[in-house]
Write a structure and sequence with these properties.
The chain is of the alpha+beta class. It has one domain (11-133): Roll (Thiol Ester Dehydrase, Chain A). Helix content is 21%, strand content 40%. It has two helices and six strands; from the N terminus they run αββαββββ. It has a six-stranded antiparallel sheet.
């Protein structure tokens, strides 16, 4: 099984049209095409949808890191801090998370979302997660 097929997106992400586009340096890149269900003000992505893509990229990056470590940890979000940097245009949106630290109890993930130019992010965020062993 390849790395992309080993990561499952939750029903919310699938209902919104999110997908795993590719792996980039061990982290999944989440993609979402613009559609009427993602519209905020006419012709632009809704900020909540952009936030949802960032959140899914954060979970996916941490899930990939935990799987790479061979751990079986439960992931719970503690908080998220989002910066909206520019309007999301009606084109494909990408997001990728980078695990900055994954300790025994807490993980910190930095996520960026972009569209046609990765050097011009649409939004970015920090997510902090609580990690705990799964009970068998």
């Amino acid at each position: 099984m390849d790395q992309v097929s080993a990561i499952a997106l939750p029903p919310y992400a699938l209902a919104m049209g999110m997908m795993i586009d590719r792996m980039d340096q061990g982290s999944p890149v989440i993609a979402m095409d613009y559609s009427p269900r993602a519209t905020g003000r006419p012709g632009f992505f809704h900020g909540g949808v952009i936030g949802g893509v960032l959140e899914m990229a954060g979970f996916a990056a941490l899930s990939a890191e935990i799987a790479r470590q061979g751990s079986d940890m439960r992931i719970r979000p503690i908080n998220i801090s989002t910066e909206y940097l520019r309007s999301g245009l009606p084109e494909r949106l990408y997001a990728r998370g980078e695990v900055v630290r994954a300790g025994r109890r807490v993980a910190n993930v930095r996520i960026e979302a972009w569209q046609s130019d990765r050097d011009r992010p649409v939004a970015s965020c920090w997510m902090n997660f609580q990690l705990s062993p799964r009970k068998v």
